[in-house]
Structures are given as C-alpha cells and as structure tokens.
Design brief:
alpha+beta, three-stranded antiparallel beta sheet, 3 strands, about 50% helix, elongated
C-alpha cells in the first residue's frame, strides 16, 4: 500500500514539474525589469540600515530622485529631518 502511494506521488510530481516549467517562463525583458526592481528595493533597505546605524530612527521608505539620490525623512535627536544619500558612481574597486 505504501509503495503504491509513493509510486503514485512520484508519478504525479514527474508529470507536473515539466508542465509547471513550461507555463512559468518569463521573457528576458520582464526578468531584467524585475531584477532592477529587486536591486532597487535591496539598495533602499541597505541605505535605511546604514542611516539607522548612524543614529537615525524612524527612517521612512527611501526613493530615488532625478539626481540619483536616495531621499526620505528620519528622526535624530528628537527632530524630524530630510535625509538624502548619494552613492558614489563608477566601477567598484577590486583588490
């Protein structure tokens, strides 16, 4: 009985995986857009953590402005202030 159940489960998985793989393909254009979005979200979170490490609290969600800065609001020493972070552009240094 257990062998029959196991064989049936494996057979259903074997037939379902190729069907799922065929229906979940994305175009490279959508993949690139999703990668840029995820990179942007990850970078925003990394900058928020750095601001909090530097003593800011209540850091808002950060967004990029037209000049490429990450801007938002944060609190430091009991005062709410605008914050802007500009990351250096260029190739990363590899030693």
């Amino acid at each position: 009985m257990i062998r029959t159940f196991t064989f049936g489960a494996l057979a259903s998985i074997a037939f379902a995986v190729p069907a799922m793989a065929a229906t979940t393909s994305f175009s490279t254009k959508k993949d690139a857009a999703l990668d840029r979005l995820l990179d942007s979200v990850a970078m925003s979170q990394q900058i928020r953590m750095q601001l909090m490490h530097n003593g800011f609290t209540h850091v808002s969600t950060l967004a990029r402005d037209p000049e490429g800065r990450w801007v938002g609001t944060a609190m430091k020493d009991g005062k709410i202030m605008s914050v802007a972070v500009l990351l250096p552009q260029g190739e990363p240094a590899i030693d």
